[in-house]
Amino acid sequence: MFVVDTEKQRVIKDNALKASVSRRRPYRRWLEKNRIELKGLFGLPHPVDLDKETLSTRQRAFGYSIEDMITIITPMALKGQEPIGSMGNDAALAVLSERPQLLYDYFKQMFAQVTNPPIDAYRENLVMSLMSFVGRERNLLEETPEHCRQLKLAHPILTNDDLHHLRNTYIPHFKGETVSILFSRSEEGGELQKALERVCTEVEQKIDDGCELVILSDRNIEADQIPIPALLAMGAVQQHLVQQGKRHLSGIVVETGEAREVHHFATWLATEPVE
Prior knowledge:
8 helices, alpha/beta, single chain, 3-stranded parallel beta sheet
């Protein structure tokens, strides 16, 4: 990178140019004082306690099939890699099925969304990154120390241990508050709409109370407590906060048993046009 300065009649080369930009503000001091670091985050996860008596019930509740267990879950558990399957999805349209379908099944790929070879974020880290920042966003047209008050995530997938750290951190104004996305079963109907309104109201209230991180969770499902589809809950909260002008005031993390379906939908969404 270089700049031709016609007023000073000089050529500014790469090192001098980047040095002048990086020294306009005391960015290093800002980061050292304001960046948020949680000890233990992204560390080696502890073994997960498994309740075998309720495992099959929870698998059915979140839509896991035998095919998912064999072709997706097992290869990931054995090899620690994302499984590579067919070139496309030739399953029947969910809207034409007579059986109950997950919300994600209604999003259909029209052609194969693959690369050859598959994109590898670790080996291609010079050209791509999964890094993201979570927390309150400030005015993008300004530069202040408060802009550094965000949590840096190396990738978007968090373990149970990571969520524990987020929930139990004592950093001022960055405590992770949890909002349940479960709702009670009812024969009368209309409970899902009420639950979505309740979730949106609770999230907005926590943000008004100064919370900078909200965790939407469907953990602890029971016979009379069923989960709102994570995609639907997240979409409702997103649109509600945008309409209220408060979306930038808090980061949102989703804790769900639908991680398999969320991953599939995110892969589809990354390659489809969005209006």
